[in-house]
Amino acid sequence: MPKTRRPYPPEFRRQMVELVRAGRSPDELAREFEPSGQSIRNWVRQAAREAGAGDGLSADERQELRRLRREVRQLRTEREILAKAAAWFARETDSLTSRPSSS
């Protein structure tokens, strides 16, 4: 079972990204510091996304996408409830108007 550890602080991640951009390789930094080379490459890729370069979504865009998906799910549920209520009221109104009046 792999060990889990606390996430690296954002400032440490920024420093690693700056070192990679300055010409150091992620594997070289991994030997010198604790995180794996792949983790450092992921941080560099994420920093590029945050800066608007590269493919993929930034953290803010992912957060907004989650929020919008949650909102769409809620709206669809509400629309379904309203459609069922409208159908029920239409049936009730129909049954009231089709009854013969006893007056």
**What is the beta-strand fraction?**
under 5%
Distance between the termini: 81 Å
Sheet with most strands: none
Question: What number is the mean pLDDT?
Answer: 88
Number of domain units: 2
Order of helices and strands: HHHH
**Cα gyration radius (Å):** 28 Å
Helix percent band: over 70%
Structural classification: mainly alpha
Helices, by number, come to: 4
Uncertain runs are none
List how many beta strands DSSP finds.
0
Morphology call:
rod-shaped
In short:
The chain has 103 residues and is mainly α. The chain contains four helices and no strands.
Task: Record the SSE blueprint.
Layout: H1 10-21, H2 26-32, H3 37-50, H4 59-98
Helix pairs in contact: 1-3, 2-3
Characterise the protein shown here.
With 103 residues, this protein is mainly α. It has two domains: 49 residues; 39 residues. Helix content is 71%, strand content 0%. The chain is built from four helices and no strands. Helix 1 packs across helix 3 and helix 2 packs across helix 3. It is rod-shaped and about 90 Å long. The N and C termini lie far apart (81 Å).
